[in-house]
UniProtKB/TrEMBL annotation:
Residues 5-126 form the Response regulatory domain. Pfam families: Response_reg (PF00072). It comes from the Bacteria. It comes from Paramagnetospirillum marisnigri. Keywords: Phosphoprotein. This is Response regulatory domain-containing protein. PANTHER family: RESPONSE REGULATOR RCP1-RELATED, TWO-COMPONENT SYSTEM REGULATORY PROTEIN. CDD domains: REC_Rcp-like.
Length: 138
């Protein structure tokens, strides 16, 4: 079996680097794949359908196709509808939280502003979604 993969859909290179640093410090032997926009994320997911990621960590505010549209598309396709999706965003809007859950997000988390809090959050997310959560068979 291959190491579990995490698909991070994030257009901010700084935030992606913070996730990468947190991921490396965990030594979970997971592979972090970064897509910088919604189209790249969906291209990756539809190519990887035989070995989907353990979890998709999805930003809402993306260039081009936004995070909610990515989620809507994922949930409309049999090959991606069961992949867990965690929305990780700076949004403070209740409407975004409701829209995310209405479209089938498994979790909605606000990005902390401090590095240590961000690292702790990524540690928690990866431990749960990669090590603890049982994924549906492919």
């Amino acid at each position: 079996m291959t190491n579990p993969r995490i698909l991070l859909v994030e257009d901010s290179r700084d935030d992606a680097e913070l996730v990468r640093l947190a991921d490396q410090s965990l030594h979970l032997h997971s592979e972090l794949v970064v897509a910088e926009d919604g189209e790249a994320a969906l291209d990756y997911l539809f190519r990887a359908e035989a070995d989907p990621p353990a979890v998709v960590i999805l930003d809402l505010r993306l260039p081009g196709m936004g995070g909610l549209e990515v989620l809507r598309t994922m949930r409309s396709r049999p090959q991606t509808r069961r992949i867990p999706v965690v929305i990780l965003t700076g949004s403070e809007r209740d409407e975004d939280v409701l829209a995310g859950y209405d479209l089938g997000a498994n979790s909605f988390v606000r990005k902390p502003h401090e590095f240590e809090a961000f690292r702790a959050l990524i540690t928690h997310l990866e431990h749960y979604w990669v090590m603890t959560n049982l994924r549906p068979p492919v």
